[in-house]
């Protein structure tokens, strides 16, 4: 930069001026929150350091582009740092331009004042003032031109001739009003007319001019009115600063800030600008949006590497771009393997379906990457509707939810947004985010459903069923939040809490009834999720909870669903075997729904089969279906031959209970006996059992 500065400082002195600016740029790159003002201040400081030569800004930005991330961004993601570096360059250019403009305007003001002081010289031909004006006129770095009120160019300086690439004779042969340009702002010539009529003293605009070589010259133009000694308008004075290079640089930085570096597609920033514009369109306008996520892209990245994944994304981007060629259509990359296509107009209900179909068809042909033919599919969520009803964030959220609904349905398809499905997904998300603190706030509680012996009707224990007392949604059953807890991993601490509460309740029951009811001590059944089953602390947690509560292991029965044990290996069964050896009963829950091999029962450490209610629903009425009777009878016979007790769920009628008793089932639970409720309800049933 030193050769293109206008400083009187030596090279070491100039370096000392630049070092603090370099440190500020490094901090701006690495600071957590991007501060554009800091980069703008650095750009302004360059002007203060006399780096005002036309090449100074270009060399500065080239230096920042080449070395800032290389030397200062070693710890951060390269793509994010390059994006921030581009924003820093943009802000530096803006700060540089503003400072240079302010300095230029100050020079222009000084020149204008000098011109005003010299207007008497033009009229009176005073030699001394003419000499001073000529020195300023010829030596200025900005272009200066003087014309009469008819627009005839009278005088121009060398800087202006160099800007236009014209000779003085050619320039003076032109008229000011010949310099129109297609990109002139609407007010440009209105301001000119007002100045010529003497209604304003000056005006400032950004204006383009056509050069003889066909290129555009962009300038900051200030035009001032010069009056004669009597105050009458006499001449017009034009001051021009060449901003062409700075404008091209800003356009380049703008492009880099709004387009994806890998695919060249518009990025999230650009897309949101377009979407916001589409949603703010007038009455009768509609929009359609396709949110695409590639199916199985992570597998390709993990197996073939990120370079192959990038080439795949480039090819997908090209295909998507070929699908959005109609007016009002665009495609953008939001990040990763997520793309979005937008269409606008008055008939987007039909157009967005056609757009989604084109995208799906474009993905059919295999993509060749490193000699491999890769088949790529995608899931698309479609949102369509009238403009002006939803914000961009709401539209994109709905599209994202719909896309995941398509992916959950198997992928390689598109789904239309459904407000009810969106509401359910938003509710699920709200519950998911509230789960971690709900346990700390004590929002969970347990209800107990009695287990009744079918032979004598005695209460043998109860199943613990967790509930969530949500502040907004009220009491939620386990089907609403257990899958979410399993997905987030919260099921482990939640399951531990349920086990602690249930074992403590079992101790209270045993203390109340001594050795138990007439049929023996009461037992508590606690459900065990697949996540808990694979947790390494399962056995130790259970032992600790039983020891702290002072309860024998035979007071506890852990229920594991049949589906969780299908194909289970010895490592998975080892914790259950250890618990069973301690005296904890293991129940195989929902038996009959997992299509497991009955022969596998012999190797499972279970002592109880809980027959799924689907086998016994037909027994609620008399007579029962003979086929169901045979099935249940066979299962009971098999279980008893393996020394397994049989518990039946969902008993709702006396006829059903009697039929199950005849078939040999051991215990049952269901609304016929009692609905899940507080532990006091079990006390009442057990008391009736104990007193006969």
Provide a descriptive summary of the structure in words.
The radius of gyration is 40 Å and the shape is elongated. Helix 2 crosses helix 4. 50% of the residues lie in helices and 20% in strands. The chain has 4 domains: 102 residues; 109 residues, PAS domain (Beta-Lactamase, 2-Layer Sandwich); 156 residues, Reverse transcriptase/Diguanylate cyclase domain (Alpha-Beta Plaits, 2-Layer Sandwich), CATH 3.30.70; 226 residues, EAL domain (TIM Barrel), CATH 3.20.20. It is of the alpha/beta class and 692 residues long. The mean pLDDT is 85. It has 24 helices and 21 strands. An 8-stranded mixed barrel has the order 13-14-16-17-18-19-20-21, surrounded by 4 helices. The protein has a 5-stranded antiparallel β-sheet with strand order 2-1-5-4-3, with helices on both faces. A 5-stranded mixed β-sheet has the order 7-8-6-11-12, with helices on both faces. This is EAL domain-containing protein. Pfam families: EAL, GGDEF, PAS. One of its GO terms (biological process) is regulation of DNA-templated transcription. It comes from Streptomyces lincolnensis.
């Amino acid at each position: 930069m030193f050769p293109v500065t206008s400083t009187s400082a030596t090279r070491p002195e100039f370096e000392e001026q630049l070092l603090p600016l370099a440190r500020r740029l490094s901090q701006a790159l690495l600071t957590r929150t991007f501060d554009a003002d800091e980069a703008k201040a650095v750009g302004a400081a360059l002007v203060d350091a006399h780096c005002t030569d036309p090449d100074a800004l270009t060399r500065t930005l080239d230096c920042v582009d080449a070395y800032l991330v290389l030397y200062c961004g070693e710890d951060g993601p390269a793509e994010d740092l390059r994006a921030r570096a581009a924003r820093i360059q943009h802000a530096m250019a803006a700060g540089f331009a503003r400072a240079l403009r302010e300095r230029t305007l100050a020079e222009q003001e000084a020149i204008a004042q000098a011109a005003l002081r010299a207007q008497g010289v033009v009229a009176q031909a005073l030699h001394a003032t003419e000499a001073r004006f000529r020195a300023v006129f010829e030596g200025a770095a900005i272009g200066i031109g003087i014309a009469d009120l008819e627009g005839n160019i009278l005088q121009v300086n060398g800087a202006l001739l160099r800007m236009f690439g014209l000779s003085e004779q050619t320039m003076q042969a032109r008229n000011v009003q010949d310099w129109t340009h297609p990109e002139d702002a609407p007010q440009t010539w209105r301001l000119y007319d007002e100045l010529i009529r003497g209604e304003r003293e000056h005006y400032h605009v950004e204006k383009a001019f056509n050069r003889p070589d066909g290129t555009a010259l962009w300038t900051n133009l200030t035009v001032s009115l010069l009056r004669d000694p009597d105050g009458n308008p006499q001449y017009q004075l034009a001051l021009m600063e060449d901003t062409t290079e700075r404008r091209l640089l800003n356009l380049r930085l703008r492009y880099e800030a709004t387009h994806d570096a890998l695919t060249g597609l518009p990025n999230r920033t650009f897309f949101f600008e377009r979407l916001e514009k589409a949603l703010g369109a007038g009455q009768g306008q509609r929009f359609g949006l396709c949110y695409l996520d590639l199916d199985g892209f992570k597998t390709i990245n993990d197996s073939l590497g990120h370079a192959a994944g990038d080439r795949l994304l480039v090819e997908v981007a090209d295909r998507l771009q070929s699908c959005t060629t109609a007016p009002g259509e665009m495609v953008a990359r939001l990040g990763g393997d997520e793309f979005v296509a937008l269409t606008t107009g008055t008939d987007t209900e039909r157009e967005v379906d056609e757009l989604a179909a084109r995208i799906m068809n474009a993905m059919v042909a295999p993509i060749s990457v490193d000699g491999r033919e890769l088949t790529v599919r995608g899931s698309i969520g479609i949102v369509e509707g009238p403009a002006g009803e939803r914000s961009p964030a709401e539209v994109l959220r709905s599209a994202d939810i719909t896309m995941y609904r398509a992916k959950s349905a198997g992928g390689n398809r598109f789904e239309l947004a459904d407000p009810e499905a969106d509401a359910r997904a938003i509710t699920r998300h709200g519950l998911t985010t509230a789960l971690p603190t709900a346990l700390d706030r004590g929002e969970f509680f347990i209800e107990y459903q009695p287990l009744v012996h079918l032979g004598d009707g005695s209460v043998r224990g109860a199943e613990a069923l967790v509930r969530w007392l949500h502040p907004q949604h009220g009491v939620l059953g386990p089907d609403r939040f257990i899958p979410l807890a399993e997905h987030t991993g919260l099921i482990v601490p939640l399951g531990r809490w349920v086990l602690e509460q249930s074992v403590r309740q079992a101790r209270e029951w045993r203390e109340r009834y001594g050795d138990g009811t007439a049929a023996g001590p009461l037992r508590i059944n606690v459900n065990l999720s697949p996540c808990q089953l694979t947790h390494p602390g399962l056995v130790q947690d259970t032992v600790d909870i039983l020891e702290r509560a002072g309860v024998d292991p035979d007071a506890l029965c852990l229920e594991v669903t049949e589906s969780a044990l299908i194909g289970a290996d010895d490592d998975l069964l080892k914790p259950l075997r250890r618990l069973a050896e301690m005296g904890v009963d293991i129940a195989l829950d929902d038996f009959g729904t997992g299509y497991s091999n009955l022969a596998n029962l012999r190797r499972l450490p279970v002592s109880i089969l809980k027959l799924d209610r689907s086998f016994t629903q037909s027994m609620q009425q008399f007579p029962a279906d003979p086929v169901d009777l045979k099935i249940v009878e066979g299962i009971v016979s098999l279980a008893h031959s393996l020394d397994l007790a049989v518990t039946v769920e969902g008993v709702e009628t006396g006829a059903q209970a009697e039929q199950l008793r005849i078939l040999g089932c051991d215990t049952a639970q269901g609304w016929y006996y009692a609905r899940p409720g507080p532990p006091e309800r079990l006390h009442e049933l057990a008391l009736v059992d104990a007193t006969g």
